[in-house]
Design brief:
three-stranded antiparallel beta sheet; 9 helices; 3 strands; 57% helix; 7% strand
Length: 198
């Protein structure tokens, strides 16, 4: 098994990506508990030896996928903003919530949040990732005399945002990413005049 610090070749990264995509598709179809390593390698069109080159078992694959998506959710939410810049909520536009586009582009993975038989520990991860991102990177400027930088308020924001995104998934992504972004911006503007990304 490769160590986390060892850089994989582009081909190895593609192989791992194909395995993960097959895994996600199978969970959506059969449920996590009914997916076997054999199912995964057949779907991805590799052999078991290739799977075991990168993963010790199905839980190892699941944990890596969860961890990568958790970090990408956090990173996607902040990477468009220059650290230290003050952003006014009135200046936000359709590109301001890149997390919405990320969810849309990775619908197969985010649909896993809706399943009863899903990756163990996945439920609650979206809200936790959003909360950690808010807590670690965002300093909000309130409208009025309110403490919107408290842990409690950021938890509230994280769970509200995650709930809205998961409700969007439940509807089959009926609304466009632009419409969902507009809704999030309108909510954000109701209590914050701006923010700074650390």
């Amino acid at each position: 098994m490769k160590s986390k610090k060892e850089k994989l070749s582009p081909q190895a990264e593609r192989t791992k990506q194909h395995i993960k995509e097959a895994f996600v598709e199978l969970i959506n179809k059969k449920g996590f508990s009914h997916v076997s390593v054999t199912d995964i390698v057949q779907k991805a069109q590799y052999n078991r030896a290739t799977f075991y080159l990168y993963y010790s078992d199905k839980p190892h694959l699941a944990e890596e996928l969860r961890g990568e998506m958790f970090e990408q959710i956090k990173r996607t939410s902040t990477e468009r903003y220059e650290p230290g810049a003050d952003i006014l909520t009135n200046a936000m536009d359709a590109d301001s919530f890149e997390l919405v586009s990320f969810v849309y582009d990775n619908r197969a993975f985010f649909n896993l949040y809706l399943l009863e038989d899903t990756i163990p520990g996945l439920n609650g991860e979206l809200a936790r990732a959003i909360f950690e991102m808010l807590e670690e990177r965002f300093r909000l400027t309130a409208i009025g005399d309110h403490d919107i930088n408290s842990t409690s308020f950021k938890l509230y924001m994280a769970h509200g945002t995650a709930g809205l995104l998961l409700d969007w998934a439940k509807t089959g992504y009926e609304k466009s990413p632009i419409e969902i972004t507009g809704t999030l911006i309108a909510i954000f503007r109701s209590f914050a005049s701006g923010f700074r990304v650390n």
